[in-house]
Amino acid sequence: MKRTDFADQLFDAVLTLKTREELYMFFGDICTPKEIETYAQRFVVAKLLNEKKVYSDIVKSTGASTATISRVNRSMNEGLNLAFERLK
After folding, report:
1. 3: left (phi over 0), alpha (psi -120 to 50) or beta
2. Exposed, middle or buried by CB within 10 Å (0-12, 13-18, 19+), for 59?
3. What is the rounded distance in angstroms from the CA atom of residue 20 to the CA atom of residue 26?
4. I want to staple 31 with a disulfide (CB 3.0 to 4.6 A). Which of 35, 67, 69, 79 is the partner?
5. What confidence tens digit (pLDDT) does each residue in 53-69 have?
6. CA distance 14 to 24
7. 62/40 Cα distance (integer angstroms)
8. Exposed/middle/buried for 56, CB within 10 Å: 0-12, 13-18, 19+?
9. Which of 60, 68, 11 is nearest to 40 (CA)?
């Protein structure tokens, strides 16, 4: 991902938030419900891929298409792995 001033400002704002409720308010202000749903679904897909689940099980549990699962699988890198490690 290319680093930009706009992204830096967004990430700095996110880092100031402390609770799940604050995050819901913030993302509710800047994202559509569908965008949040899409990001959340992709995160859960990545989590299930990280847990070595097979595509058919991921489709059943998330409703994501195999194309989405494949895209998420190709894009998984250090950022997601760091988050999964910290969530343990």
Report:
1. beta
2. middle
3. 10
4. 35
5. 999 999 999 999 999 99
6. 11
7. 10
8. exposed
9. 68
